[in-house]
Amino acid sequence: MTPAPRPAIVHSVIQVRIHGRGGQGVVTAAELLSVAAFLDGRHAQAFPSFGSERTGAPVMAFCRIGDGPIRTREPVVHPDVLVIQDPTLLHVPGVFAGFEEGTVLVNSSREVDVPRGRLIVVAASELAREHLGRPMPGAPMLAALAAATGAVSLDALAAAFRERFHGPVGEGNVAAMQAAFAQIEELTRA
Amino acid sequence: MLRQIEGSRAVAETVALCRPEVIGAYPISPQTHIVEGLSALVKTGALAPCEYINVESEFAAMSVCIGASAAGARAYTATASQGILYMSEAIYNASGLALPIVMTVANRALGSPINIWNDHSDAMSQRDSGWVQLYVESNQEALDVHIQAFKLAERLALPVMVCMDGFILTHAFERVDMPEQAQVDAFLPPFAPRQVLDPDAPLTIGAMVGPEAFAEVRYLLHAKQMQALDAIPEIAAEFEAAFGRASGGLVRGYRTEDAETVIVALGSVLGTLEDVVDELREDGERVGALAIRCFRPWPMEEVRAALGGAERVIVLEKAFAVGIGGIVGQNVRLALDGLGVRVHDVIAGLGGRAITSASLRAMIEDGLAGRLGTLTFLDMDWELVEHELERPSGPHAENMLRDLRERVG
Could you give the residue ranges of the DSSP H alpha helices within B264-395? Predict the structure, then answer.
C-alpha cells in the first residue's frame, strides 16, 4: 500500500459559521477569513453551504482555523463563532442550531437579543456604507471577529481583502475593517 | 509555493502547468470554475499555443478532445453530472480509440430528480467505459493526481478521469502546495503520441470491427487497465521522488494494521472518516479506514491484502446500483472472495446530504455491535419514503417536498 498513513491529528480548531443573505458576500467572507488565517501562518478551510443561492435568500458559509491540517469535510455543526450578517436572520429557525457556547457577532445598528453566547453587535452595514460606499458587511464583520476572538490578525484580513479587491474597493473594505476593529477592541477592553 | 485558493482554481492552474494543447470546454456546475480558470489563463497567452474551444455541449467537448488527441495534441476537458451522461458515447469512443485524454469529473448527482449537489453517481455511471478512474481526497491530492494522470494516460495510451467531489473540494478554499512549471516539465515530458492523424501521412483510425476481432480489440482495454495497476504505483513513486510528497497510488490504509473493522471509502469523505476512526481508537476500538484511490482498474490484490485480516468491512459509498445496492461493495466482496469477511454496504451523501462525523460514528458503532445489515442507507428519512410508497398517485418529488414542508409546519 502506498503511501504511509498520516499521523493522527491533535490540535484545536476554531469553527466559524457565517449566516447572511444572498448578495451580502457571505461566501467571500468565509473564503477571505481562511486566506487571512493562512497569511497568519495557520491552516484554514472555507466552503459554502451550496444552497440555492438567490439574492436575499438565507445563505451559510463555513470556516475552520487550526494549527495543523484540517481533515474533516462536514459542515460546521457546532460553531464556536457565529457571524450573523443580517439581524432579520436572528429569527430564522436553525441559525443557532448546534451553537452551545462561544461568540455571536451580529450586524445591527440597534440592540439585539440572542438566546445564548457572548454577544458582539457591530453596525457593519453602516460602517461599510460610510467607508466603502456600499452596505457590504463582510469586511467589518470579520474585523470584529478578529478583535473579539483573536482568531486572525487585522493585518492579514486587510491583506486578504486587498488581494481580492483591487484599488478603491479594497481600500474601502480595509477602512471599514479598521473602524470596526477599533470599536470592538475598545468594547472588549472595557 | 503554498497558497490558500479554491480547489477549482488550483486544478485549473495545475492543468495549465501540464501544458495542454487543446481544451474542449462546456460549463456545468460544479465544474465551471475549472474551465473558467483555464479560459482566463489561455487568454493571457501564458499557455500558447493551447487552443481553448468553447463547444456547444459535453458531447462536443469530448469529441473535440478525441479529434485533438488523435492529431497528436495533449487534450483536456472537465465535466459533471448530466454532462457526463451527455458525453457518454464519446467517452466510450475515447477509450476504445486508445486516446490519452485527461478529464476532471467534479462529482455531482444524476437526475431525476434534478440536483446540483455532490455524490459519485456520475463517475460511477462510466465505471465500465474503459477509462481509468482516480478519486482524490483533498485539493492537494487533486493537483498532484492531475499531473500524474497525464503521465499515466500517455504512458499507456488510455484516457484518465480524475474524480474530485463537487463543491466539497471544487469550492473549498484550503492550503495547497502549487508546483513550479520547471518541476512539472521535468516530471511530465511532452506528449509523444502512438498514433497521429496527419494529412502528410494519411491513415484512418476507428475502423468498424466485426465478430472476427471485436472481442480482441476490446480486450486490449482490459489488458491496458491491468498494466495500469503497475503503472499507477510506479508513477506515484516517481511523483513522490520528484515533488517530495506522497499522493495518488491505488489504495491507502489508515490505522488498518491491527483493525478488526475497516471502513472503505472514496474521495473527500475520507477526511471526516479518519477523524472518526481516531475518536473510536481513543475509545479502544480496533478500527481503520481504507481509501480506494483508483477504482478503475480495480486493485483487487491490494484491496484483498489491506482488508483480508479484518473481521468486518463497511463500504461507505456515495452512489448505488438501483436494484442491487452497493457498487464498490460488490467489487470489495470479489476481492475478499473465500476469506469469510463480512461486508456491509452503507450508502451515504446522496445528492449532497452532509455526511457528519456523528452519523458516521453511530453507523460504525452499529457495525461493531453487529447491528448493521447488508445494505444501509445512512440518515434515510424512512417515514418520508414509506408515506410516498403508500400514496396511489402523483409526482413523487413534488409530493415528498410537500410532505417535508407540512412537517415543518
Answer: 269-282, 300-307, 328-335, 357-368, 382-390
